Amino acid sequence: AWVVFDCLRGRKPSAMGAAIGAVVGLVAITPSAGFVTVGESIFIALVTTIVCNVAVYWKNHTSVDDALDVFPTHGVGGILGTVLTGVFVHGLIDGHWDVFFIHILAVIIVCVYTFVVTYALYWLTNKMIPMRVSANSERIGLDISQHDEQYGMVEPERELAEYSEGEVSSK
């Protein structure tokens, strides 16, 4: 579904897109696995894959720093999978609004809990070790300032210690 949707939107299909689509489908079906029919599971995976594809596209047009697209794939996929579980598993399809709203409440509780705990852990970590580098480090780049590496830089060949003939034979 990810690859087909990319093609429909005029983007080039890729193996990476196929892999991401497969993972998103699996993330979405996880909450209801074992409780839905094959058709319902395919529907859940297809809808979630398309929604996550759009979420990744939107995220790429923001300043959000999520290089691996974790939230638009796993976060949105898990949320939508949980909501659709409330639709298909003894929920809206069967006329049980209460089950659907329990799933909505669960999503809200998990989002609030995750935000609060993550914020607290980042705050605590920042007090121990500053998480933001200096403006100078950002200016010259983190590869150089933090890792002492540079893309494309040719490392000078390292010379091995040379031993004189007498030292080698004595060792």
Written account of the structure:
The protein has helices at residues 2-8, 15-29, 38-59, 70-88, 97-128, 135-140, 142-147, 165-170. The chain is mostly helical and 171 residues long. The protein has one domain. Helix 4 runs antiparallel to helix 5. It is flat, with a radius of gyration of 25 Å.
Give the key terms.
171 residues, mainly alpha, flat
SSE arrangement:
Elements lengths: L1 H7 L6 H15 L8 H22 L10 H19 L8 H32 L6 H6 L1 H6 L17 H6 L1
Q: What's this, in brief?
A:
This protein is about 65% helix and about 0% strand. It is mainly alpha-helical and about 170 residues long.
Rg from Cα: 25 Å
| Beta-strand share of residues | under 5%
The ordered H/E elements are: HHHHHHHH
How far is the N terminus from the C terminus? 65 Å
Largest beta-sheet characterization: none
Give the beta-strand count: 0
Alpha-beta classification: mainly alpha
Mean pLDDT metric: 88
* Shape descriptor: flat
Contiguous runs where pLDDT drops below 50 for at least 5 residues = none
- Count structural domains: 1
- Number of helical regions: 8
Classify the helix fraction into a percent range: 55-70%
